[in-house]
Specification:
The protein is mainly beta. It has seven helices and 27 strands. Among the domains are: 30 residues; 231 residues, no CATH class; 173 residues, no CATH class. The chain has an 18-stranded antiparallel barrel. Strands 11, 14, 15 and 18 form a four-stranded mixed beta sheet that branches. A two-stranded antiparallel sheet has the order 2-3.
C-alpha cells in the first residue's frame, strides 16, 4: 500500500514538474560559467618544513646534544648551553641515535633505555624487521600539485529575486609525489597521513565545512548557495555565503564574520585576492537597509564554522607531525558548539561630518573561529576515528604497569577512557630536549612553561610536579618552575641534594598563595634537566592537543575618506581607510598550552592608503596600496606575543632573560603592494610585501598573462625571510616554505 502511494506521488510530482518547471525556466535568466585550473608550487628552500618529520634536522641519526652532567655557568647569568666548550667536549655529550624498537619495558616496543653515563639513546625510526621503513626524506620539491575546478550558476528570476551557487572540486596530487609514505606500523599513532583535506574540528567524517565531502586526496564542497531578494531599499541574502567586511591585503580588522580555511595553500595565494578563496562560507541570513539619507545598516545571522589549519604531514604544516589534534566531533562540547549562531551589524554613514567621509561602526557577537589549543588529557584514545585502541596497552602512561600510574579502572579502558596523559611513545615524536625546545620556539610557545604545565596539569604525571620544582605561579592557576632551595643550580650544572625541600615548596604553591617563578638561566637549566629526564626514561614521545572555541564580542569603528585635489596630483583620488577593533576578554592559546587559557583585552587597528596613479606614459594607471596595522596582544596568526623573544621560547640559543622581558608587548605590520597592467591588458605585473617591525619580511612578486578570455597563466614567488633576531618576528615560522607557484586556468 505504502509503495503504491509513493509511486503515485512520484508520478504526480513528475507530471506537475514537467508542466511547471519549463514555464519557470523560460522566465529565468541563467548564466553558467566556470574554470579548470592546475596549481603547482615548487619549493625553493633546501631545508624543508621542520614541523614535518622528514625535514626535522634535530631528529636525524647521530645528532650530538650537550649532556647535563657538566653544564657550567661561569658568569652566573651568561649561561648558554650550545657553544659552551665544557658542555660539548668529548665525554660530556648526549648522542641521539634511533634505537627504535628496543627490548626494554613490558611490551618490548618503543622503549629506549638510558645509555652509558654520558650518553643518551633517543629513539626514532629503525630500519629492521619490525619497521622496514627508515626516516623519510623530503625527496621531492613539490609543495603543491592540485587540480581544481569550479562551476558557478547565476539565476535571475526578475528584478527583485536572484540566486547564485558555486560548486568547487579539488584533487591533490602532491602526496603521491612526495616521500611521506607510511614509515612504519605505528604511523597512525601520530594521526597521519591526512593529506590536504580532513579536519580536526569537523562536522563529521573529517569535513571542514557543512557542505563538504572529502577523502585524503579529494574535496568537493559548495562555498556558495544563496538567494538574493531586493525590496526597494531593503536587501536580503539567504543561504551558504561568505560575509566580507574587510578590504585589506593580509589584514583583517572588520572582517570578523568568517574564519579562514588555509588547508590548501596557507596564506600564500595571491595577496590581491584578499582571502576570497580562504573565507569559510556558512549558512546564514544577511540583510541590509538603506535609509533616505544614504545611511545603511548591514547585519547578519550565521552558523559558526571553525577556521581550518594545514594538516600534519603536508608541506604547509604548522603543527609538528608528532602531535595529534584530536577529532572534536566526538566531544559533546563540540557537538553543541557546531550549532551555535554568530550575529552582528554595522552602520555605514556616508558624508558624515564632511563630504566624502564615510564612517562605520560595527558590533559582532561570535564564537571565535580560531579557537584555543590545550593539552588533551585523554590522549588520542578518546577518539575512535583514530583507531588507537589497538595500541592502547603500548602506552606506558596509560597501562596499569606504566611508569606514571595506570588508568582510572581496568587494564584497558578502551576508547573513551582516560589515561591521564597527553603523551604516548611514538617513533616520529619529539625525541630530546633540543627537539622539544626547538619545536616550541618554532610555533611561538614557551617550552619551559609547556613542560611544567604538561607535568602539573595532567593526572598521570601530577605527582611528579613538586619533586621537579613545579608549582603555581599566578592567581589564574598557571604553573612554572618555582624558586626554592634546590632550584639554585650549582656551578657544575647539578641541582643539589635538597629535593625534599623543593618538593615541599612546590607543593605549597596555591592559587591563593602562588610561588615566585625561577628566572633566566636557572629556569632554563631546570627545564632542560627535567625534559631530558623524561626523554631518557621514555624515548620519543608524541602528544595530543585539542581545540576549544570561545565566544567573544567585537566592536569597531572605521572610516573611509576620498581626497580630492587637482587632477593628476599624487594625492588626488587617494582613498584613506582606517579601522579599529576592540575585543574585551578575548581568549588566546596560553603559551604553555595550559587549560587555563589566556583572556585579555585586545585592540587591532589599521590604516590603508590606496589609489590609481599614472606613472608611465602609454600604459594604464598603476594601482598602489600601503597599509599599517597595530596589534596589542597577538600576531597575524593569532598567537600570543608572549611566545616571542624570550628565553622561554628561544631556550636553546637565546640569551637568558628575566620573566619581565618575556615576549613582545605589541606588534606592527606594514604592507606595500602594486598592480601594473600593460597595454591591451594581456600582461599584468603584481607585487606585494608584508613586513613586521622586528624584521620579518614576506615578498610576493607575480606576473599574470591573459592572452584571451579563456586562458590565464599566473606565476608568483613566495619569499618569506627575516633580518631580525631569533624568535622575534612572524616570518621565521614560515621561512622554510619559500616557493614559486603557477596557476594555469581555462575559463568556460
Amino acid at each position: 500500500m505504502g509503495n503504491k502511494l509513493t509511486r503515485r506521488l512520484l508520478i504526480a510530482g513528475g507530471m506537475i514538474a514537467s508542466t511547471v518547471i519549463p514555464s519557470i525556466a523560460s522566465a529565468v535568466d541563467f548564466n553558467i560559467t566556470g574554470f579548470v585550473r592546475e596549481e603547482i608550487a615548487i619549493s625553493t628552500d633546501d631545508g624543508g618544513n621542520p614541523t614535518n618529520e622528514h625535514d626535522n634536522g634535530t631528529r636525524t641519526n647521530n645528532v650530538i646534544v650537550p649532556s647535563f652532567g657538566h653544564m657550567v655557568d661561569p658568569a652566573h647569568g651568561n649561561y648558554n648551553v650550545i657553544g659552551n666548550p665544557a658542555a660539548t667536549s668529548a665525554g660530556n655529550q648526549q648522542l641521539i641515535t634511533h634505537s627504535g624498537f628496543g627490548g626494554c619495558g613490558a611490551n618490548g616496543i618503543l622503549c629506549n633505555p638510558a645509555g652509558a653515563a654520558n650518553f643518551k639513546l633517543v629513539g626514532g625510526y629503525l630500519s629492521n624487521s619490525k619497521n622496514p621503513n627508515p626516516v623519510p626524506t623530503a625527496g621531492n620539491p613539490l609543495n603543491m600539485l592540485n587540480t581544481r575546478s569550479e562551476i558557478e550558476i547565476q539565476a535571475k528570476f526578475n528584478e527583485n529575486i536572484a540566486a547564485y551557487g558555486k560548486l568547487r572540486f579539488y584533487f591533490d596530487g602532491t602526496g603521491a609525489t612526495r616521500d611521506d609514505g607510511k614509515p612504519g606500523p605505528n604511523y597512525q599513532m601520530a594521526g597521519g597521513p591526512k593529506g590536504y583535506f580532513g579536519s580536526d574540528a569537523n562536522f563529521g567524517g573529517g569535513r571542514g565545512n557543512r557542505l563538504e565531502v572529502q577523502n585524503r586526496d579529494m574535496m568537493l564542497d559548495i562555498p556558495a548557495l544563496y538567494a538574493d531578494f531586493n525590496y526597494g531599499s531593503a536587501w536580503v541574502r539567504v543561504g551558504q555565503q561568505q560575509i566580507a567586511w574587510g578590504e585589506a591585503y593580509f589584514f583583517r580588522v572588520f572582517d570578523v564574520a568568517n574564519g579562514l580555511d588555509v588547508r590548501r595553500h596557507l596564506f600564500f595565494g595571491p595577496g590581491a585576492e584578499e582571502y576570497s578563496d580562504q573565507r569559510i562560507a556558512s549558512p546564514g541570513l544577511r540583510a541590509s537597509y538603506t535609509f533616505g539619507n544614504s545611511w545603511e545598516i548591514d547585519s547578519f545571522l550565521q552558523m559558526f564554522s571553525p577556521s581550518q589549519i594545514p594538516n600534519t604531514f603536508t608541506p604547509y604544516n604548522v603543527v609538528s607531525d608528532g602531535f595529534v589534534v584530536t577529532n572534536l566531533n566526538h566531544d559533546a562540547a563540540w557537538q553543541k558548539m557546531e550549532n551555535t549562531l554568530n550575529f552582528g551589524a554595522r552602520l555605514i554613514m556616508p558624508d558624515l561630518f564632511l563630504k566624502d567621509l564615510t564612517v562605520s561602526i560595527m558590533a559582532v557577537d561570535r564564537v571565535a573561529p580560531d579557537g584555543v589549543y590545550i593539552w588533551n588529557q585523554n590522549g588520542p584514545f578518546n577518539n575512535p576515528s583514530q583507531n588507537m585502541q589497538a595500541v592502547y596497552k603500548l602506552n606506558p602512561f596509560c597501562s596499569v604497569t606504566g611508569y606514571l600510574g595506570g588508568p582510572p579502572s581496568g587494564s584497558n579502558p578502551g576508547p573513551g577512557g582516560s589515561c591521564g596523559q597527553s603523551f604516548f611513545q611514538n617513533p616520529i615524536g619529539t625525541n630530546s630536549y633540543v627537539d622539544w625546545f626547538n619545536e616550541a620556539s618554532w610555533v611561538r610557545l614557551d617550552g619551559v612553561k609547556g613542560a611544567a604545565t604538561a607535568i602539573y596539569e595532567l593526572n598521570a604525571s601530577h605527582g611528579l610536579a613538586a619533586a621537579n620544582g613545579i608549582g603555581v605561579v599566578d592567581k589564574q592557576g598557571r604553573v612554572d618552575f618555582v624558586q626554592g632551595v634546590s632550584s639554585l643550580v650549582q656551578a657544575d650544572g647539578s641541582f643539589g641534594a635538597n629535593g625534599a625541600a623543593a618538593a615541599n615548596i612546590a607543593a605549597a604553591c596555591t592559587v591563593a598563595h602562588p610561588c615566585a617563578a625561577l628566572n633566566g638561566w636557572q629556569r632554563k637549566a631546570k627545564a632542560f634537566n627535567t625534559v631530558s629526564g623524561f626523554f631518557t626514561a621514555f624515548g620519543p614521545l608524541g602528544g595530543t592537543i585539542h581545540r576549544e572555541f570561545k565566544r567573544e564580542q567585537d566592536v569597531g569603528v572605521g572610516f573611509n575618506y576620498i581626497i580630492n585635489t587637482k587632477p593628476g596630483d599624487l594625492l588626488d583620488q587617494l582613498i584613506v581607510r582606517g579601522e579599529v577593533q576592540y575585543t574585551p576578554n578575548r581568549s588566546f592559546t596560553e603559551v604553555s598550552l595550559s587549560s587555563v587559557y589566556d583572556k585579555r583585552d585586545e585592540i587591532l587597528a589599521d590604516i590603508i592608503l590606496e589609489k590609481y596613479q599614472s606613472i608611465f606614459t602609454g600604459i594604464p594607471a598603476t594601482y598602489l596600496v600601503a597599509e599599517w596595522m597595530h596589534r596589542t596582544q597577538s600576531d597575524l596568526a593569532g598567537r600570543l606575543l608572549d611566545g616571542y623573544n624570550g628565553s622561554g621560547t628561544d631556550a636553546i640559543n637565546g640569551s637568558e632573560q628575566t620573566r619581565s622581558n618575556f615576549g613582545l608587548h605589541s606588534m606592527d605590520y606594514f604592507v606595500f603592494a602594486f598592480q601594473q597592467p600593460f597595454p591591451n591588458l594581456i600582461w599584468r605585473a603584481d607585487f606585494a610585501m608584508l613586513a613586521d617591525r622586528m624584521g620579518g619580511i614576506f615578498i610576493q612578486p607575480g606576473l599574470r598573462y591573459k592572452p584571451s578570455g579563456a586562458w590565464q597563466i599566473d606565476l608568483y614567488a613566495n619569499e618569506p625571510f627575516h633580518v631580525g633576531g631569533n624568535n622575534n618576528n612572524l616570518m621565521q615560522t614560515f621561512e622554510n616554505m619559500k616557493e614559486v607557484f603557477t596557476r594555469v586556468t581555462y575559463y568556460f
